[in-house]
Amino acid sequence: MSAMFRITLPDGSVREVAPGTTPADVAAAIGPGLAKAALAARIDGQVRDLNRPFEGDTQLALVTARDEADALELVRHDLAHVMAEAVQHLFPGTQITFGPATDDGFYYDFAPKDRPFTDEDLPAIEAEMRAIIARNEPFVREVWSRQQLIDRWTQQGETFKAEWAAELPEGEELTIYRQGEWLDMCRGPHMASTGKLDPAAFKLTRVSGAYWRGDQKNAMLSRIYGTGWLNKKQLDQHLFRLEEAAKRDHRKIGAEMDLFHLQSEAQGSVFWHPNGFVLWRQMEAYMRRRLDAADYAEVKTPQLMDAKQWEQSGHWGKYRENMFVVPDEIPNAEDEGAILSGKGDLMALKPMNCPAHVLIFKQGIKSYRDLPIRMAEFGCCHRNEPHGALHGIMRVRQFTQDDAHIFVREDQLVEEVRKFCELLDSVYKHLGFEEYAVKLALRPEKRFGDDAMWDKAEAELREAVMQSGLSDTIKANFEELPGEGAFYAPKLEFHLTDAIGRTWQVGTIQSDRVLPERLDASYVGADGERHRPVMLHRAILGTFERFIGILIEHHAGRFPLWLAPVQVVVATIVSDADDYAHQVAADLRKAGLRVETDLRNEKINYKVREHSLAKVPLLFVVGKREADEGTVAIRRLGSQGQEMMALGDATARVAIEARAPDM
């Protein structure tokens, strides 16, 4: 008789089972309710198929819909396979490539036989998917040899799959998953059958082009995207968020409010219009006041630096593909010959400010009494992002960081990080973000420095968060992210939650002992000897461009009064009030407000509607009566009513309302 396997459950109880037993058998033995609810099994921490037999003694936890992250991953993976089968059934001759799960759904790349797919094809594919789900086909895992895979794909005319299979390692366990007659190469896991999917909890969303293996030299494929959830309620909530996100899209609102534009002549760089640059300047002035109050010294450093500097800092080896490299030579001005000789030394536009700040630190001898030195810069940086990755002002090539570096002694580090956390907390609240999460990104596999240094740096950041005045909720939800630190330092990440529940990673602080060593930064300690400072890399907004994009979408363009590009429009009802409207505007400007007048020969309801679409917070409406009485009718954005006030009182009140929150 074969030896029994010991299966340890989450409550510590142990069950002995015979070889060939599956997690599904254990679930059935516990009870019919669990057998029905179980979607997969976590075997020694790894999610696996419910019907895959145990291979020895193991820790077992059954995955149900309550384990939402795991359950959604399974659902989306299953839906990708179901979609691929549906497409090949409806469009014979279509070749399959890859189809992963994503953060909110799934996609699959296809090589259609006759024509690219379009959005008009999606309803028929959805209907076929529901038919496959209704058949309740089991997902069956099989181990194949590489040659079996190559033969299968070649016989089926699946040239893309055959190419991929030929590159798989011979010694590795290679698996396919089958649902009925249809199959695909896949590591799994999957749920027990297609019938575990809710046919009302998915939707195909769009079709786009994609290159085979992400290389534009390869064949163009049709990528079909879908979103998938555990139930219809989750799907409906997601579709509502997408609809709301589309309304709040910063590119749409940016055009409506005349804030900025982008065009191909400057890929990934923003053309700020007057209204948008007012918003930028308000943000910059606010951040500068906060930095001044926190005892930062502002600096300005070059954008173009010798490649040797980037080699010394370590960025040239780790980050070069994202840098704009410039030859240090004068171009040939003649019509004949190459423009550049290729013999000039290389320079690079800075992708970050840190090495330049070290060079400022190194000017003159620094004493332990000088530390901490807080060095801030609204530094313009460039990163060579792929064209396909650019997205409005959220992902750009030229950007301005609200960057700072704090040079500290070892004994000052925790206190400085604590102060930073509290400054950041205050800034986010002033900008309308009450909810955010703090996460600690830990050492990556490829890194500079030894384990002792990383142990110390990670522990210090943990301690600083717990010592800070951040809320108990934030501390209770503090999370650690293994392997996600920078190559030179662990970092705290700050993830904002916006008005519709999306999260954005913006602020960060990194504890770096590597760069001061590489660039030979030092101070003279109390013992008269040279010591290395620790360098804290920190940002609160991250970049102005991206943060303003987030602000636009968070507030849906309805900025707090202190940030609004135009704070008040004075609109006339009749032309007889034009002179009075100019007086009202002049009084408001004297009080420091940003004001425009609307004296057009249009009905007042038209003016109200137009300025509401432009998200102007306040409308001062004046007619002959208001001119005679020295009053204004105040209409607030989003309100149907109006309030009558004397001009002096209205000006004083609005001037107070329009103050920045730090003033």
UniProtKB/TrEMBL annotation:
Annotated keywords: Aminoacyl-tRNA synthetase, ATP-binding, Cytoplasm, Ligase, Metal-binding, Nucleotide-binding, Protein biosynthesis, RNA-binding, tRNA-binding, Zinc
Residues reported in the UniProt entry to bind Zn(2+): 354, 405, 537
Swiss-Prot/TrEMBL cofactor(s): Zn(2+)
InterPro entries the record matches: aa-tRNA-synt_IIb (IPR002314), aa-tRNA-synth_II (IPR006195), aa-tRNA-synth_II/BPL/LPL (IPR045864), Anticodon-bd (IPR004154), Anticodon-bd_dom_sf (IPR036621), Beta-grasp_dom_sf (IPR012675), TGS (IPR004095), TGS-like (IPR012676)
MF terms in GO: threonine-tRNA ligase activity
EC number: 6.1.1.3
Catalytic activity: tRNA(Thr) + L-threonine + ATP = L-threonyl-tRNA(Thr) + AMP + diphosphate + H(+)
Main location: cytoplasm
One Pfam assignment: tRNA_SAD
SUPFAM superfamilies hit by this protein: Class II aaRS ABD-related (SSF52954), Class II aaRS and biotin synthetases (SSF55681), TGS-like (SSF81271), ThrRS/AlaRS common domain (SSF55186)
Domain Aminoacyl-transfer RNA synthetases class-II family profile residues, every copy: 249-560
Cofactor info, note text: Binds 1 zinc ion per subunit.
Domain TGS: 2-64
Keyword Membrane found: no
Subcellular location: Cytoplasm
Gene3D superfamilies linked to this entry: 3.10.20.30, 3.30.54.20, Anticodon-binding domain (3.40.50.800), Bira Bifunctional Protein, Domain 2 (3.30.930.10), Threonyl-trna Synthetase, Chain A, domain 2 (3.30.980.10)
Enzyme class: ligase
Protein family: Belongs to the class-II aminoacyl-tRNA synthetase family.
Assembly behavior: Homodimer.
Record-given protein name: Threonine--tRNA ligase
Gene name as annotated: thrS
